[in-house]
Amino acid sequence: MTTAAPIQVAAAVIASGDLYLITRRKAGTHLAGLWEFPGGKCEAGESLTDCLRREVREELGIEITEPIPFQTVRHEYPEKSVELHFFRCTIKAGTAQVLGCDDLKWVTAKELATFDFPPADRRLVKALQDGLVS
């Protein structure tokens, strides 16, 4: 368990109808190869929503609608602590492309169970599967 302040992470729950956009983490990164909701670490002085907009632009080449806070999850990894702030949004402009990730997929909530997510994302996956996000 770490004693440092948790790393602040913003992640997008991007929906299109009954589909959600997930991305695969790049090789050579922490938790490489696992699937996640797009986003990333906040830079110094950056707000969570500014971070989210920057990260989805860098990873996917898209602009998103106003992010709506949904769920915050704190998770302790052996090497670090993270606080993930999940936001609901949709694509405002552009088409998602594989830029800062290794792959992307649009999947239903039920299909999420067939992908390997980091432990910190699993509570959100369950909420989506239980229909707690509209």
**Average of the residue pLDDT scores:** 92
Can you say what the CATH homologous superfamily is? Nucleoside Triphosphate Pyrophosphohydrolase
* Quantity of strands, as a count: 9
Helical proportion? 10-25%
Major sheet attributes: 7 strands, mixed
* Overall structural domain count: 1
**What fraction of residues sit in β-strands?**
35-45%
- Based on Cα principal axes, name the global outline: globular
CATH class: Alpha Beta
**CATH arch. level architecture:** Alpha-Beta Complex
CATH topology: Nucleoside Triphosphate Pyrophosphohydrolase
Task: List the secondary-structure elements in sequence, H or E.
Answer: EEEEHEEEEEH
> Structural class, judged by helices and strands?
alpha+beta
Number of helices: 2
Q: Which ranges are low-confidence, i.e. pLDDT below 50, for 5 or more consecutive residues? A: none
What is the rounded Rg? 14 Å
End-to-end Cα distance, whole Å, is 35 Å
Task: Summarize this structure as a short list of keywords or feature phrases.
alpha+beta; 7-stranded mixed beta sheet; two-stranded antiparallel ribbon; Nucleoside Triphosphate Pyrophosphohydrolase; 2 helices; 134 residues; globular
Explain what the structure shows.
The protein is of the alpha+beta class and 134 residues long. The protein has a single domain (7-129), classed as Nucleoside Triphosphate Pyrophosphohydrolase (Alpha-Beta Complex), CATH 3.90.79.10. Helix content is 16%, strand content 37%. The chain is built from two helices and nine strands, in the order E-E-E-E-H-E-E-E-E-E-H.
